[in-house]
Design a protein that fits this description.
By secondary structure, the protein is α/β, with parallel strands linked by helices. The chain has one domain: Rossmann fold (3-Layer(aba) Sandwich). It contains seven helices and seven strands; from the N terminus they run αββββαβααβαααβ. It has helices at about 1-15, 90-100, 115-130, 135-140, 170-180, 180-195, 195-205, and strands at about 25, 40-45, 55-60, 75-80, 100-110, 160-170, 210-220. The protein has a seven-stranded mixed beta sheet, sandwiched between helices. The radius of gyration is 17 Å and the shape is globular.
């Protein structure tokens, strides 16, 4: 729960600049996605929904490399913690497709670099040693090297790009270890429900190098808007 907040709160801060009524697509949303912290309607797409999708998300089954939407039909497109699950040969295709349907902004968040990969390798060992069982998402993390910002080099002619680190490595490891326990997960949920602003400030304080995740924001350059 707190790990979700750490990754979505920075994205929500970026979306506020677009106004309350901006149209949003989340690629690779799962059954909840942004809706955990965002109470306005948005479209979420994924290759399948293992559990029934939850409001306010409008679910669409789709492949990230072939989105069933017209070009520039969403004000903002979010691709959060998705690229690391995709074979490196297909990552550029996912980025290009997300940018195609984005009218104004596209936000990509992903574990990045060798240090983050080794952090998750250690976490995978902890899950296995604790007999909890390595969750499927973490098994997928171990299949490929993590993405880096180099994926966006070819987009600079049509998009202005900024990026920043998210979630310090040691903090990420600590949170994920704690969330193996139902008690800690419950306590984190209570904190988020009762003191969301305080939690957000604490999470911002935990954003320090070396980072686990990178958030890359692409904004369409003015000459390419129309």
């Amino acid at each position: 729960m707190l790990n979700w907040a750490a990754r979505y709160f920075p994205i929500l801060r970026e979306l506020r600049s677009l106004g309350e009524h901006c149209s949003i697509l989340e690629v690779g949303s799962g059954s909840v996605g942004l809706g955990k912290f965002h109470n306005r309607t948005f479209v979420g797409c994924d290759v399948n929904f293992p559990t029934p999708p939850k409001a306010p998300m409008l679910p669409v089954i789709a492949d990230a490399t072939a989105l069933p939407f017209s070009s520039r039909c969403f004000d903002a497109v979010i691709v959060s913690d998705v690229l690391e699950h995709i074979p490196p040969s297909q990552r550029t295709a996912v980025i290009v497709e997300a940018l195609r349907v984005a009218r104004s902004v596209a936000i990509f968040a992903f574990p990045s670099g060798t240090q983050a990969f080794e952090c998750d390798r250690r976490l995978s060992y902890d899950y296995d040693k604790g007999r909890v069982g390595v969750p499927p998402w973490l098994q997928e993390h171990m299949l490929y090297s993590f993405p880096t910002e180099d994926l966006f080099e070819d987009m600079k002619s049509k998009w202005s790009i900024k990026s920043f680190g998210n979630e310090g490595l040691s903090f990420h490891y600590w949170i994920m270890r704690k969330e193996m326990s139902r008690l800690w997960s419950y306590l984190f949920s209570i904190l988020l429900f009762t003191m969301p602003r305080v939690v957000e400030l604490l999470l911002q304080h935990a954003d320090r190098e070396p980072f686990y995740r990178r958030i890359v924001i692409l904004q369409r350059a003015p000459q390419w808007v129309s």
